[in-house]
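ESCALATION

Customer reports they have been waiting on this structure for their group meeting. Please prioritize. Original submission:
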Amino acid sequence: MKNETKNSVTVFCIRLSLVVIALAGVSVCAFWYPFQTSLTAIGVPSGERVDPTAAQKAEYWIQLIFYWIASLPCFFLLIYGWFLSNNVKKNTVFSLQTFRLLRRSAIILFIDSIVFLVAQLVFTVLRWNPFAPILSAVGVIGLILSFALLLGGHYVKEAAKIKEENEGYI
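Update from on-call: job pushed to the front of the queue and completed.
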């Protein structure tokens, strides 16, 4: 009974964290990206009304749509996190299913981070976004997290093998 209660609390905390992260991600997509890209496309007006040119509007929409599309895989990772919390709930964390989820998550995050970093490089070269070098840190953090997921998946796979061996002896 104690173990079930502990698992329930753990699952609740994991799911609450995922919901909070999802809400933060939605707010970034809804508010920060449009604000940040509008600053980079038209600059900060000096008190008088400044209408953006057609090129500035194109820069704005290209960057905004890219950031929205680059954010989608991160929301898929939150869904994978929800599936992983189901494994915690069922007490099957050390299984090949968990390993596959972690490996898929690592691959998705790795590809998304590389695409994000390349786009930040392009935005920097084109001088579309002066924040691109700072945003590159997000891509680097994504790469580090993808390697951590891959490493965690490796250990989950090894633990699943050990668990199978131990169950075979009993």
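Sent to customer with the following note: The first helix runs from residue 2 to 42.
Escalation resolved.
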